[in-house]
Amino acid sequence: MLRALPLTALLLAGGALSAQAATAPVAQASAATSAETGPVLTTPQEWRRMAEAGSAYPLFAVERARVESLVRAAMAQGVNVPTPRDPGGGFTHEQHKRNYLAIYNAGALYRLTGDKAYADFARDLLLEYAKLYPTLGAHPAGRGQIPGRLFWQTLNDSVWLVYSVQGYDAIRETLTAEERRRIDDDVFRRMAGFLSAETPENFERIHNHATWAVAGVGMTGYVLRDRDLSDKALTGLKKDGSAGFLTQIDQLFSPDGYYEEGPYYQRYALAPFIIFAGAIDRNEPGRGIFQRRDGVLLKAVDTLIQSSYGGYFIPVNDAILDKGLDTEELVTGVASVYARTQDAGLLSIAQRQGRTLLSPEGLKVAEAAASGAARPYAFRSVLLSDGPDGTHGALAILRAGGEDGQALVQKATAMGMGHGHFDKLNWLFYDNGQTVVTDYGAARFLNIEAKAGGVYLPENNSWAKATVAHNALVVNERNQFGGEWQTGQNHPPQVLFFDTVEGTQIVSARQAGAYDGVTFTRTQALVEHPELERPVVIDLLRVSGERPARYDLPLHYNGHIMKLGFEAERAVAARPVLGTADGYQHLWVDAVSQPSLDSRSLTWLLDGRFYTWRFASSVPAQAILAESGANDPDFNLRREPALILRADGQKDATFVGVLEPHGRYDGRAETVVGADSAVRDLRSVRGADAEVVVVTLASGKTVVLGVADDPSPRAAHAVTANGRTWRWTGPWARLDQ
């Protein structure tokens, strides 16, 4: 449906605003309007302040110019509200996305400039939706149990509502009574009804899809002055607190502000949490929404930023790798939290983003940034508890060497619901601004129709979620928890200890229930030593089983192999596949060693730095070099290398490794420095109730780490080998010689 633009809008789209329009004060309510039609999501006083002061602050002025450009381009294209047809990425899908952004931004520009052409454009779009929406049933390309109406899934309908109702709030008082009635009833009230009472199975969930729905419905309630709608959004359809926004805050975040589905989905869910919380704060300040649970929504923004490296979010669970600190949702989060905390570190994130919001919170960010108040953001080592009460494991991030230095991540979190992966006690490592030990993330090309319409690919289940696709223990070539995420929800890991002292940062966690009769404990440390160029990772995994099994411990790494430090039979003429199910069907085998107890090594090069992984085990184990991409007829998978350490027929086993960043390769100068590892040998020694890891350096000196089975701080331990006894008290100790 195409509609001609008013002449004023065409003139506006074709060039700069007139001087009068550009400097006009924020629009005032006409005599025909009242408290029943004026803006409530942002107050008239707040709009006036932004209109008068915004141009003085670069971040705000640049954002306004960016938004003006987008809206003028939309106005030049005309009103286009197509009948829904396409899945994600298709024309109608993308047009409805463009429309909600146009409504949202045009409303803001009307308030900031006083130019009614913006309000008229938003009005004309919404009147077309008032014609279309009552005619719609389930989306023809709908997927899942609850297809949307404008979009193929209700989630996107909820997002449309969240943004469009904000734009509508800004222009609602400019409409005639009949226009308001039509848009109120045939767009917003109908959509709010569909997303709440008509689809309770979505609205009442404790999940990010429901967060978007309750945010849209709740803000619609405020704008339409419908207390019933806003109360249902806050406390559930029965208004008894069994569901709704408040329960989502209580159940989806840990006390540290970690979101159950992981950083990628924390980024996505952050927008409705923060936007709706802001609306609640303005309309029901007595609820103290930003103080709820000791300010957990404010903590959530810091937690999300901490869960990043090199500007990108740590990609655990169903994560797409290219999402980072510059995302729209975090722009919203940074502005909202800075306005309430004045944390100067957030200003440096805003400066990195290069933008802010056209909101009162965005103005505060722009004012403070212009005054020179920004301070570097304090990236630090953290243990981010998981679960509503903080007892469902944790994400540990150990950092050294600054923002682009070393970062060791141990994933000892809960399952992450349906977006979780079967990767308990998985780990990642970052260095030199690069991902060195990797996580595949999700098998999905978001909104690219050529790849299954942009949804999760079949390989998301067959590979990306599989245990072997991670740096996690696999037993008998099967996924943890039998590949059932609901089972995984009920068996979170137990964090045994987390400590950061000078020269050593360490975390340990234990997992039971991932496999019947099997318990495994992983302790990892970021360790410094005067003879080591940079901190190294020490990795100790001990597994105990009730019966003999096959234990596989993969390492997925990023870089090009420089040196293979063990003998192996290469698969040159034919490339076999490692297995038949649970991810193994997607692994090509390139080389296999004989079983050995000796320590071995693999060195690779990444972005001018060498990395050597030295590994050993308490039982004979094979080393398998593999690569993803087998059984992938549609070329959906990335080709990425892995090293798998395999021990067969064992009940108990210990795997130990040390990852060392070292040296430098300069391709332009054709120089190589420090290409050889400074680690000469590696072994672990088992005692009655503890383990000692001994890393021997080239000089003969040793880095020694003692780790107890019992995390009690008062328990004493002794481990003896070859006439040498190591003693300590507590869960761990450095025992260097």
Helices, strands, pairings?
Elements: E1 2-3, H1 7-14, H2 19-23, H3 44-53, H4 58-77, E2 79-80, H5 91-113, H6 116-132, H7 154-171, H8 177-195, H9 200-203, H10 208-223, H11 227-235, H12 245-252, H13 263-283, H14 292-306, E3 308-309, E4 312-313, H15 328-341, H16 344-353, H17 360-370, E5 382-385, E6 394-400, E7 406-412, E8 426-431, E9 434-437, H18 458-464, E10 474-475, H19 485-489, E11 494-501, E12 504-515, E13 518-527, E14 536-556, E15 560-565, E16 569-570, E17 587-592, E18 600-606, E19 609-617, E20 622-628, E21 641-662, E22 664-666, E23 671-673, E24 679-686, E25 690-697, E26 702-708, E27 716-721, E28 724-729, E29 732-734
Describe this protein's structure.
Strand 12 (504-515) and strand 13 (518-527) form a beta hairpin. Helices cover 33% and strands 26% of the residues. The protein is elongated, with a radius of gyration of 28 Å. Helix 7 runs antiparallel to helix 8, helix 10 runs antiparallel to helix 11 and helix 13 (263-283) crosses helix 15. It has 737 residues and is of the alpha+beta class. It is built from 19 helices and 29 strands. The strands form seven sheets. Strands 10, 11, 12, 13, 14, 15, 16, 17, 18, 19, 20 and 21 form a twelve-stranded antiparallel beta sheet that branches. A five-stranded antiparallel beta sheet has the order 5-6-7-8-9, with no helix packed on it.
